[in-house]
Amino acid sequence: MAANSTLLHLIDVHKHYTRGSETVRVIRGVDFQVSEGEFVGLIGPSGSGKSTLLNLIAGLDRPTKGQLFLDGVDIAKLSEAEVSQWRVHHVGFIFQFYHLIPVLSAYENVELPLLQFGLSARRRRRQVLTALKLVGLNHRLSHRPGQMSGGEQQRVGIARALVTDPSIIVADEPTGDLDGHTSEEILDLLDLLQNRLEKTIILVTHDPRAASRAARLIRLEDGRLVAGDESTIGAAFPGWQGTLT
Question: Are 237 and 209 in contact (CB under 8 A)?
């Protein structure tokens, strides 16, 4: 794929849920593109559809209508089995509450996605150690989640998202459970992934400090795209004095 080419393209994407006789329209005709290597912030009020849209992009949910191309594949047309395999190879997901397996060590949590790739133990070890070193946790390989701080657990989560070398990394409020200082460290790490490794990142956040790290903002309200390419964080977060870099 050529540098700066379109990696993600959503065309008239809708997501509806049925509750009894009621149809709940969560995503309503969203269109946008994300280029390879871009860091995009997905913002909007609670209930605007941000997390639902992120789940659609990650292949964790299916659109009711529309096309969703990632790396040239319309994932809306894949079967459940196909999208499951596609997701393992193309998407790294960073969660707000880490979603680590408590009985596994940091090493084992990061290794878990690689078990579906048919790699040798030696190859898996090399990739796991590289990912944990990148997030600064190569000294915590044998520690379980309960033996680590929230920031360290999130670093393990980032290493797990990165270890398969995915096409895109999606992050749902990755600093929402962390204090200010630790949040800045995690955001610095996401910057590193984007700048050094040229990873494409889509970040859902309510935090203007996190949003300010993105090069571009996509804003949702009531399931619709209402603003994109914001030039200042202040336009999206009234009272915020910082600007996008």
Answer: no
Task: Locate 165 and state its tokens.
Answer: 């070398």
Give the model's confidence band at 62: pLDDT under 50 very low, under 70 low, under 90 confident, else very high.
very high
CA distances from 100 to 4, 12, 54, 104, 122 (A): 33, 34, 20, 8, 23
Predicted TM-score (pTM) of this structure: 0.89
Which ranges of the chain does DSSP label H, i.e. alpha helix? Answer: 50-57, 80-90, 106-111, 121-134, 150-162, 180-196, 208-211, 233-236
Read off the pLDDT of residues 40-56 as tens digits, 9 standing for 90 and up.
Answer: 999 998 889 999 999 99
H/E segment holding residue 219 = strand 216-221
Fill in the DSSP letter of residue 173.
S
CATH number for the domain running over 6-236: 3.40.50.300
Per-domain residue ranges for the chain?
Answer: 6-236
Q: What share of the chain is helix, strand, coil (3-state, %, to 5)?
A: 35, 25, 35
Per-residue pLDDT reduced to its tens digit, 64-96: 999 999 989 999 999 989 998 899 899 999 998
Helix (H, G, I), strand (E, B) or coil at 206: coil
For 6, the 3-state DSSP assignment is strand
Q: Under 8 Å CB-to-CB from 173, ≥6 apart: which residues?
A: 96, 204, 205, 206, 207
Residues facing 69 on adjacent strands = 9, 74
Look up residue 144 and give its two tokens.
């379980």
Q: Rg of the chain over CA atoms, in angstroms?
A: 18
Cα–Cα distance, 118 to 96 (Å, whole number): 29
